[in-house]
C-alpha cells in the first residue's frame, strides 16, 4: 500500500484502498470515459471526510497534489464521478438519520440512495417524488441537479431540499440556511473560511449583478457552469442562501455530507396509459391536449425501440407490431384510483381517430411493466459496439421538437445508424444512445465528433445538451466554449472562492480539457447492464 493511503487508513474510521482490482471498480461509471484513481477512500462519517480534506490540504503545502472526487453510486454519464487522485465513495454514508412525519421532513446522509430513502419513507406514508434511477444518491441528485421524469408535476429535487451540510475545502463543515439580510452578518462576520465564503459570494453577486440578472432571465434550460448563483439572493427581501450553488456543482465546491429534505404524501396508485402515433406532430398535439391533466410522467419513445426489444423476446404486446414505428406516448397518473380512471378516460376522448391506445387495467398491468423492460432490452441490445451515453439528457423546447426530429433523421443517414429518441415530454429532457465501437480508434474519434455535431444540432433548435444534467467532464468540451468571457470569469471566481487550491474534482466543468478527455475515452466496453 502506498504511504499516503496507509497514513490515511491509520487516521480514518473508514477504509482506504489502493489495490489494482479495487481501483479498477471505481475507474468507470455510465460514461464513455475511464480514469483510474490512485486510491479509494470510503468514509464512515463526516469526520473521516473532514480529516481527508485537511490531509489533502497539508499535502498540497508539501507540493503533493492529491485531488478528491466524490462518488455516489457511480452512475454519472459524463465521467464527473471519476478522478485520478482520491475517489471518495459515499457508499457507507447511507444512513437515514431522522424522519419527522408530522412536519414531513427527513434528514439523511448524502450517500443514501433515492430507493433506500423512498422505501423508508413509504412506511410513514411519505415520499420524495423524484423519479429517476433508484440507485442515485441524494448528494448526487443535488450535485448533478438531475431533472427527473416527474419534475414536470413535482418540480424536481430543487423543490425538496431544505438544507445541506457540506465539508468545504479547508476541511471545516458548514450548514446552509436562508438568511434574511439583517441576519446575514451572523455569517459574513465569521472569521473562519465559511465566513469568507459568505463575504466573497455576496461581493461576487454585487459586482456581477447585470450578468446574474441576465443569466436568470434566459429561456434555455441549461445546468452548465454555476448558473444557480442566480438563486443565492432571492426575492424583494434579498434573502441569502449558499445552498443553490451546490446544485450542478458536481463535487467541485464541497462535499455534501447531510441533507434535510421535504416530503410529500405517498400516493401508491399509479395508472398508465399508452398511445401510438404515426407522426411526431400527431403525438405532440395529443400530448399538449393531455398536459392539463397533470400526469406524473409524460414520456415519449421512438417506437422503433420496441422492434429491437421484440428481437430479444421482449414484446410488451400492448400493440400489434405494425405500431412499432412512429412514436409511443406513455402517461402515468398518481391520483386516487377513481380520479386516475377519470383522467385516463379523458385521455381516450382526446385521442385522434387514427391513433391506438391502451389503458392500464389489472389484466394488462404486466404488459405495461414489460414496456419498461423492453426499453432496457433496447439499451442493452447486442449492437456492433455499445450504446454509449454521450448525449443523454439534452433539452429541446417543445416548439422545436418536431423539426429537431426531422433533422435527426438526416444525422441517422450521415452515420448510417438509427438514433432513437426517448425521454420526458413534460420536462423536455430527452436522450439518444449512438452505437459506438469504443475498441477502435475510429469509434473513439466518433465520440468527440458526434458530441460536437449533436451539440450544434441541439442548439440550432433552441436546446442545450446540458438541460437534464450538467456538463461534467465530457460535455464540458463543448459547453466551456459556449460561455462568454464574462460568464467564464464569474464561474472561475466562484470556483476559486470555494476551492482556492483546486482540490475538489478539478477535471470537470471549467477544469475539463480536451487532452485529458481524449486520453480517457474507454477502449473496452462496460461489463454491466445499462440502466
Ligand atoms: C440508466 C441511467 C438513467 C438515468 N436517468 C436519469 C434521468 O432520468 N434524469 C437525470 O437527470 N439523470 C439521469 N441519470 C443520471 C444520474 O441519475 C445522475 O447522474 C445521478 O446524479 C447519478 O447518481 P450517483 O449517485 O451515481 O452519482 P455519481 O455518478 O456517483 O456522482 C455524480 C456527480 O455528483 C457528485 N457527487 C456525488 N455525491 C456527492 C456529494 N455527496 N457531494 C458533492 N458532490 C457529489 C460527483 O462528484 C459527480 O460529479 C441516469 C443515469 C443512468 C445510468
Q: Which CATH top level class of the largest domain fits? A: Alpha Beta
Low-confidence spans = none
List the domain count as a whole number. 4
State the secondary-structure class. alpha+beta
Indicate the CATH topology of the largest domain. Uridine Diphospho-n-acetylenolpyruvylglucosamine Reductase, domain 3
How many beta strands in the DSSP annotation? 22
Protein described:
There is one protein chain. The chain has 531 residues and is of the alpha+beta class. The chain folds into 4 domains: 3-89, Uridine Diphospho-n-acetylenolpyruvylglucosamine Reductase, domain 2 (2-Layer Sandwich), CATH 3.30.43.10; 96-265, Uridine Diphospho-n-acetylenolpyruvylglucosamine Reductase, domain 3 (2-Layer Sandwich), CATH 3.30.465.10; 271-379, Alpha-Beta Plaits, CATH 3.30.70; 386-492 and 501-519, no CATH class. It has a 7-stranded antiparallel sheet, sandwiched between helices. Strands 5-6-12-8-9 form a 5-stranded antiparallel sheet. A 4-stranded mixed sheet has the order 1-2-4-3, with helices on one face. A hairpin with a 4-residue loop joins strand 10 and strand 11. It is globular. The mean pLDDT is 95. Bound molecules: flavin-adenine dinucleotide (FAD). The site of flavin-adenine dinucleotide has 38 residues, from strand 3, helix 5 and strand 12.
